[in-house]
Amino acid sequence: MNCGSNDHKLHRRLFLEGAFTGAASLMSFSGLFTLPAFAAEAKKQEKHCILLWLCGAPSQFETWDPKPGRPTSGPFRAIPTKTPGVQISELMPQCAQITDKLAIIRSMKTNQREHFQAIDLMTRGDNPRPGFTRPTLGAVLGQALGQVDTAIPSFSLLDPSPEGNEFKAFKAGDWAGWMGSQFSPIRTGGEFKIEDIARAPGLSDADHEEREALRKFLSRRYENRRKSTAAGGYNAAFDRVKGLMSCAHLYDVDRLPQKDRERYGPGQFGIHALQARHLVENGAPFVMVANGMPWDGHVFNHEIHQMLVPEVDRVVYNLITDLEQRGLLEKTLVIIMGEFGRTPFLNNARGRDHYPDAWSLALAGCGIRGGMVHGATDENGVEVKENVVDQRRLFATFYTALGLDPHARYELPLGFPAFYRVEGKAEPVREVLLADPPKPATPAVPTVPAFTPRPTAKPVAKPVRSAKPAPAGRSK
Amino acid sequence: MADPTSTTTTAKPVVKFVKRHMLPTGAQSVDLHPDGVLAYVACQDGVYELNLTSGARRLLYPHESYASGIAVLPQGGTLVSAGYDGALQWFDCAAGKVARSVKAHDFWSWQMALSPDGKQVASVTGQYLAGGPKYEPAPEREPSVKLFDAATGALRHALPHQPPVQSVAFSPDSRFVAAAGMMGDVRVWDAQNGQQLSAFNTPAFTSWGIIKNHHYIGGIYALAFTPSCEELLLTGMGPMADPMAGNGRQLWQRWSWRGTPKKVDETKPGSSGEGLMEALAVHPSGEWFVMSGRLRGGNWNTAFFRLSDGNIFHSLNTDSRVTRACFSPDGKRLLLSGMKGQPGFNKEGRIPDWGHVDLYEIG
């Protein structure tokens, strides 16, 4: 099933050819926290990231890049913001008050026009390479920013919807790629709490620990004797469940103050954004908030944006101001984006179609310079006029803002090609970064993130073409 | 432009396409001047005067957003328009200027209507804002239905409803005004004293999207009283599992609104395709009505139905989205306003005309 527009006549088959055939995607590389130096550095950082995932793709004209008086403007007006000379849609009056904390990028230009492929692109940061599955941003950051002594999942996906059309299909896929299933997201939502996770009545702490120790002993023995990666995955899952049992209350929105729920809600996206704040307050490295795929405005574009944009406006305002008041904003990167933008010209169904050629997003928080707009589209929003940003530069910006080396290389087993956090040595968008961003957690010289237990960063035996730097802005 | 295709299933009345007049932007509504030559069109960039004989057109004045509604007062010297800027504007045709502007709403005027006696203008509003976890519409922040004195612009009634309220109509005798919205709520008032006379709900026009859009959308996009004033015709689109598909059934319903409201008829099974219907008008003869909108699936976007039995006697495909249907007082002509998809810039750097008013003769 797709969203019904002509935009969808390709491509899932093409994507599947590349995305799900990989041996490496099935592998698990554990041992990250067995390296004391890295673990200590990661712990010291205490950085976080919240991705407000506007799946379906909102219109830049009705959000960050209005074109008042132009044929492409749509019915909504533009309003001034706290940043002199910068206007945003009238649907975002609260964000207009905090643009000094926002970096708006109006020059996104990507190369995937279909939801599934674009979701894949904008969650992983690169186009697929057949045979290998790149981990998503949440898996990467969950690993890089995760704390060693917390039970909070490193990657939480808060999405109340079991559906989501193309996003549903994506959700069923592999989020952690070659990093292994332990970096996959814990997904919750809907009832705003994780169900069926309470310890059985009558089971004491001691009994519970004894059972767990026995289960672990037996399964480790099985794993070692049979060299079973599946058993390893099960063990990782049990560890995560055990961790979840100890922090399930953090996923219970009913425990949050009613006043907070009123400020963020009543829609489920807002409630889950509040939950994301709560998780970050308690140490979660990465939280992704979604709500199905509601932004796909092929039909009723303006009717839907009149409702969804004000919700995002309220959520972004409250989230950023709350994080700031709690002293967490400078440690938390907030990303507000979808998978592409919407067409400048209306279709005959009062809608806007898919448009990756010139679109917008916003960032705030950790390492981000507020009060600025980067890039520009032409007067009608048809083309990017200056400072094109693609997915690679964007992801390099994410990592740099969080103090991570964007060009660090993954250490994969011998014989595998070299992969990097960001391929092609793409440079971050320096203009949206603070002058003195946080220092990279990894050494200054690009080295291999410790995804394997091997202590040294030996070069892979056979670097392949994909490891060669490519010009920024191009994807494989 | 290719002639619209049409299929006549009965011999009478005959609906004959005459001409398509193009306009620079999407045409949201149209009304006919009493002289029968001029039409006034509410377009996305303002209000146009259109000569149906010569095809000449001129932009009279803009709204700050899309113009959404237009009506010609009975003597023909004054226009009243509504817009997504929430304003009503009175335009003096002789003086060639806006004589009055009234801030009617904080949000869009979704639709406006002029009472047949020319004395009152009704305008409806309401922003869809989330009011609950399933994105139930929030209660109204301002009265959703307002009636203004057509001569003075004075507010006569501010009436409550469940926003967003997307459609409004007066009864043929000007005694009643009805308004309907996204959630299928229909209310009827005495247009003279503002007393609410009826309220009912029909859920058939509203969608809640389980597949990917977890909110409500759709609603009643047009309504009209039958000649007896005792019944209401409603139109929109049937429920969709995925609101973004726009593939609900082309739907009208007929309701008796007095006493205990009751549905008395609706689109016959198998007689419609898919697509949002936005326009509804009863022919001055009182014998039939036209419903029109967008074709998503099927073979017509405009169809003519007998009021006596609800059956189609004619249908056509304008190959466009139709926003408003308007008969001349003598019933011999029909205007359909609408638009195709907005084209991009051409080689000359301009956007080709994409709004239209189609003229039909009724034989």
Spatial order of the strands forming the largest sheet of chain A: 6-5-7-1-8-11-4-12
Q: Sheet bearing the most strands of chain A, described?
A: 8 strands, mixed
Catalogue the unreliable spans of chain A.
6-40, 442-476
Decide which structural class fits the backbone of chain A: alpha/beta
What does the average pLDDT of chain A come to?
A: 80
Report the span from N to C terminus of chain B. Answer: 23 Å
β-sheet strand percentage of chain A? 5-15%
Largest interface: A-B, 47 and 48 residues
- Bulk shape of chain A: globular
Helical content of chain A stands at 25-40%
Figure out the total of helices of chain A: 12
Helix content of chain B: under 10%
Q: Tell me the number of strands of chain B.
A: 31
List segments of chain B where confidence is low: pLDDT < 50 over at least 5 consecutive residues.
5-10
Largest sheet of chain B: 5 strands, antiparallel
Principal-axes geometry of chain B comes out as: globular
Give helix and strand order of chain A, one letter per element, not per position: HHEEEHEHHEHEHHHHEHEEEEEEEHEE
What Rg of chain A is obtained from the alpha carbons, in whole angstroms?
A: 22 Å
Radius of gyration of chain B: 19 Å
Got a strand count of chain A?
16
